[in-house]
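re: ur question from yesterday

yeah so i grabbed the chain u mentioned. its 344 aa long if i counted rite. heres the sequnce exactly as i have it in my notes:
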Amino acid sequence: MTLKATLRGIALALGLVGGAAAALVPLPAQADPLAKEVFGAQRLPAAAKPAVHGFYSKGCFAGGMAIAADGPNWQAMRLSRNRRWGHPDMIALIERLSREAAKDGWPGLLIGDVSQPRGGPMLSGHASHQLGLDADIWFVPMPTGKRLTEAERERMEFVSMLKTNSLYVDDRKWTPAHAAVLKRAASYGNVERILVHPGIKKKLCDTVTGDRSWLRKVRPFWGHDSHFHVRIGCPAGSPGCRGQEPAPKSEGCDASLAWWFTEEPWRTSKGPAEPRARDVMRLSALPAACQAVLSAPAPASEAAVTIGGGAPVIATAGAAPVAASAYAPTPESAIPLPFSRPRD
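ran it thru and got these structure tokens back, copy pasting raw so excuse formatting
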């Protein structure tokens, strides 16, 4: 059985796991709480058939799975954030990329944020990552011959691929393997977009030879100089998922990229800063199905819904046995994240 089929089988089985053993997640007493507070408080996913509800920046998901903190070809970073969760299709893609990128000279992935256990707005950081269909991968490969400790994963600094105070890539840091891992990720059919800093997009436009068709999926955006952001499309079985407009068919190495190297994208915004959507979004603003996601039972344990890592094998009803992680989430910690347009 393939990993993807295993993931789906486990997630489907979880609708039967827990049951009476798992208490319903109580909603806060206030009638319409801040969505980030109720979703940020969830430590385990909704034990239900995998389904995505809403849009990347306004939604949630059920049937989530976690990528193990340690796998044969990956290590998850910032474990205290408890953001290793995603739709089974996203987790399968991360595992696949970790294996296949080895062919490109990439020894393993350092995995950043995927999503919270049930998605929804986050307490800090991203506007998107709410559907379990987004994942951040560091531009620093996994160290060879060494496993980072939990403390090292919290403290390790982001490494920008850019020259200091510049929009352009530092050639002392950039390697052919960086371009190869991006091409590999873009080659997957369900990957719709890969977000990178405009300077990295320009580096690809200036240096990629041969097949350049995959460049259309690589889109420039603020931040993303120390990691790349992989986004997949709406998965099967999620009629409530609202997809993004398809990426343009052109390579994107044209006037749309040149705009990023003008003053306008980086001009400081004037006037008082508007609150971030995630900080004011109420539960009622999300799809109605998200209230059911919040109220759904949790699985029996985190290990039962964690993929990879070589820990003890956990068998779940109706699914093939899978390796489970022994790692438990730790409290939220503040970690700097890429930001968008600067303000006064």
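noticed a couple things. Confidence is low (pLDDT under 50) at residues 10-29, 310-344. also The longest helix spans residues 88-100.
anyway ttyl
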